Amino acid sequence: MGSTPAVDELRRAQRAEGPATVLAIGTANPANCVAQEDYADFYCRVTNTGHVDGLKHKLNALCVSASGSQKRFFYHTEEMISAHPEFVDRAKQSLDARLELTVLSFREPDRAHTVTCQALFGDGAGAVIVGADAVRPVEHPMFEIVSVGQTLIPGTEHVITMQLTEHGLDGDIAAKELVPLAADNVEQCLHDALGPLCLDGGEWNDLFWVVHPGSPLILDHIERALGLKQGKLAASRKVLREYGNMLGSTLIFVLDEQRRRMEEEGDGAEWGVMMGFGPGFTIETMVLHAPERRNKN
């Protein structure tokens, strides 16, 4: 029997040499689209709550003035809700029938935070293909994933408390606390992520930005905290305006929009940051490198 290669040699041969790289991005939305100016009427009609004092006025104000969105997409339709009253009445035991996107959080206005959630969230799906050592010209690397980090802000467990229960997706978002928390902590997160790469000594405007657009206020506060020029968060604002907040998949939509701007409009730098926010309060930071921009610069 001949000599066999060492195990570490086999493992090296099986591993990629290059960095993890985004090779493709895909996004999709369901067919049902509701304009924000029409959503209050839609919601009150399908939940039979038009008689609730002040509900339509409050919901309409949130949809039109505060959400930053012009329209949203939904998996659930008026016909579906009529056929499945358990979507609205959470007392009906049918969680298995509710495991569909924002149907999880769609409910009658039985709690104070319900109206806010109904004004903000929509449905969308996003996916990326991540690989390494791209085979050209078949594969085209879009963004190299250089580093990732997660920061849990102490004492903020109450800010986002969404969890899956027997009644669907439930919890609360303390919006008044959430907005300043993101702005007050974002710069330190950037230093922690970019410092080891010696990229935190320049202007924040030298980077491209892929930021989860939880709300216009979050984007406004981050923009001011970092001194970003108008248009640096344009990809985030466009996605929020055209699709609403689709929870985690929103970030994939923003990444795809930033890719489009860089390819079609020449918008963007060689280095950038992707940021998401979650329960905790948690700030997720990912440093991205656009190899195609290096070749053009």
Automatic annotation (TrEMBL):
Origin species: Oryza brachyantha (malo sina)
Pfam families named among the record's database cross-references: Chal_sti_synt_C, Chal_sti_synt_N
Listed GO biological process terms: polyketide biosynthetic process
InterPro entries referenced in this protein's UniProt entry, alphabetically: Chalcone/stilbene_synt_C, Chalcone/stilbene_synt_N, Polyketide_synthase_type-III, Thiolase-like
Keywords attached to this entry: Acyltransferase, Transferase
All copies of domain Chalcone/stilbene synthase N-terminal, residue ranges: 8-102
Domain Chalcone/stilbene synthase C-terminal: 144-290
Name of the protein this chain belongs to: Chalcone/stilbene synthase C-terminal domain-containing protein
